[in-house]
Design a protein that fits this description.
Elements (H helix, E strand, L loop, with lengths): L17 H15 L17 H4 L12 H5 L16 E11 L2 E13 L3 E10 L3 E12 L2 E11 L2 E8 L4 E4 L6 E2 L5 E2 L2 H12 L9 E7 L4 E16 L2 E10 L8 E7 L6 E7 L5 E10 L2
Parallel strand pairs: 9-10
Antiparallel strand pairs: 1-2, 1-15, 2-3, 3-4, 4-5, 5-6, 6-7, 7-8, 10-11, 11-12, 12-13, 13-14, 14-15
Length: about 290
């Protein structure tokens, strides 16, 4: 019998793994670089989102150079300090979230007994909810020495502990611990520490001077460097106030710009604070009144 013709072979399909690989990589990029949540700018000292999102992104050229600049403890500004007496500071606040402006009131409660201190900043606004940041610790000849910082919102609380016995900073947000450097502050105590250092040695705040601090938030500790820009007169608390402006410029992706105006008259309290996120959201609070604690 004649041989039957064989049916033509079917071409094998290409192996599938290469196809999913490209979509997976494409999906990872948007997740790695979301805009920082606007609510992180609430209270002026919140931690921006980059601590969670930036590590997943392909490393750009600039960030690798940042850690060496942040690491040395010698950069941290320490020195004689004169802390402000206890007070309740009330601020008028204006901010913008996703191009929507809002108004609110903030209150900074500052109390101490000469040995221990407590600071609490509370903001409540319709669009962004409420937020309370607290700092507590000891007072030393060099100023504030935080032991605990907390950031509380409706969805929960995150805490940062300054373990001075083991010279480390520990985060409840499961972030890696950081070595504790001399003069380290948290994002709330720093506002009061700058004024205390100004009271202890005003000559260090000459225009053009730079002051660096290891500054801990809810998720990480990094170097914040302020440049003294110079005197500026503001309208605050119903009068003209002679202030000194300091600026912390962004240093990496998703970093925040911090502008701080300290009263040039003792006890050098913060008169105005403006925080600007990388996506343009901002918070601007100006002193309305100073009351008894």
């Amino acid at each position: 019998a004649p041989a039957r013709p064989r049916p033509p072979r079917r071409a094998r399909a290409a192996p599938p793994p290469a196809e999913p690989a490209e979509p997976a990589a494409a999906e990872a990029a948007p997740q790695a670089a979301p805009a920082p949540p606007a609510t992180d700018s609430l209270a002026g000292n919140g931690s921006p989102a980059p601590a969670e999102s930036a590590p997943a992104a392909p490393a750009p050229a600039a960030p690798p150079a940042a850690p060496p600049a942040e690491a040395p403890g010698a950069e941290t500004t320490v020195g004689p300090a004169v802390v402000a007496p206890a007070a309740r500071l009330v601020y008028d606040l204006v901010g913008e979230v996703r191009q929507m402006q809002y108004h609110a009131q903030a209150e900074l409660l500052w109390r101490h007994d000469g040995q221990k201190y407590e600071a609490r900043l509370t903001v409540s606004a319709f669009l962004v909810g409420s937020r309370t940041q607290s700092s507590e610790g000891s007072l030393t000849p060099q100023g504030l020495a935080p032991s605990r910082f907390s950031d509380k919102r409706r969805r929960g609380e995150q805490a940062t502990h300054f373990d001075r016995a083991r010279e480390r900073i520990v985060f409840s947000a499961n972030s890696p611990e950081a070595p504790l450097q001399p003069g380290a502050q948290d994002r709330l105590s720093l506002l009061l520490q700058l004024g205390a250092l100004m009271g202890g040695d005003p000559a260090r705040f000459a225009p053009g001077s730079q002051l660096s601090f290891q500054t801990a938030g809810p998720r990480e500790a990094e170097a914040w460097q302020f440049t003294v820009e110079g005197p500026e007169t503001l309208s605050a608390a119903g009068r003209a106030v002679d202030t000194l402006k300091l600026v912390r410029q962004p240093r990496k992706t998703y970093d925040i710009r911090v502008e701080l105006w300290l009263d040039r008259a003792p006890p050098h309290l913060p008169v105005r604070t403006r925080i600007t996120q990388s996506n343009g959201d901002y918070l601007d609070q100006t002193l309305r009144s100073i009351e008894a604690p």
